[in-house]
Each structure stands twice: as C-alpha cells, then as structure tokens.
Amino acid sequence: MRIAVFEAEEWERRACQTLQPAHSVSCTPEALNARNAEAHGAAEIVSTFVNSRLGADVLANFSDLKLIATRSTGYDHIDRDWCAVHDVTIANVPDYGDATVAEHAFALLLAVARNLVEAVEHTRHGNFSQNGLRGFELRGKVLGVVGTGRIGRKVIEIAGGFGMEIVAHDLHPDGEAAARLGFL
Q: The whole model's pTM is what?
C-alpha cells in the first residue's frame, strides 16, 4: 500500500516508520496542496489535517487514490463531490477534541475574567500590585453558546459547573439535551 501523510508532526513521522517496509509511506510536515500533490500522486491513501485543501485540482493528481483519512473532525477541506465521483472514501475522527476545545474556551474565558494576561505582564516587570486586576466571577453570569453539538454541550457542562446561566442556540434544537444540561 502506498501512503502519503501530510501535516505530520515529529511523533507522527516516527509512527509512520513503523508501517515500513510492509507499506510505502511518505510523511511530511507540509500541507497537501497543488504544488506538492504531483510528487505524491502514486499514493493510494492520503492522510491530512485541516490545513490541506483537497479540491479537485489537487485530487486529480492521485491516479490510484482509494482513501482520504483526515486527522480531524471536520472534512470541509475535502471535495466530497470529487471523491464520490471517483469512488474515494473519506474517513475522519468524529469525536476528536470535544473536551479539549471546550476546556480551551474556558481557559480563555478565565484569563479574561481574572485579568491573567495583565497579571503576568505586571509580574514580569516586577510589579506585584493587584491594582486593576480584580476581575469578576463567572458564577451567575450568562454565557451564550452558538451550536449545541458535542463541543457546545461540553462548554455547557463546564459552564454549569461554574454556576453560569446558559443561553444556547442551535439550528436543530434538542429539547432533551436542553432539559438535561439546563440551558435555554
């Protein structure tokens, strides 16, 4: 099997080596694009991340392509119509990073609420005064969440733990989830 892995970090490149010699594997930190697609055109499997843009112009370079495995939840960077016409399967990671993204959102929210960036800057300059760094509590504040999919629901769960009121909007409302998680 001929495999081309793009946007690979060092640990992923080491993992790719374990597939050899049973498979021919090329592994690069570059995103797949129109400039480098032809050099990997013999690949039967392509693995990418979110910075690769797999439009028809790029995919046309792969004569034996059978599978695109994106190492992300989203796959809007892949031309699904082209893949359907050319019988190329697309695989993604449907549950990737839900908690990670929600926790990161709260890390940023806490940084704002507690003036953490300003506090760190003061400290770096030898200013240990708390003046202007009071911040505010999240308890009792209203949090608006747009989209109540997996990530939105994780955000709502965390917000509930902080005692926040949650107002959410989704194109496809789920009354059961709203009742269970306590959002409007």
A: 0.68
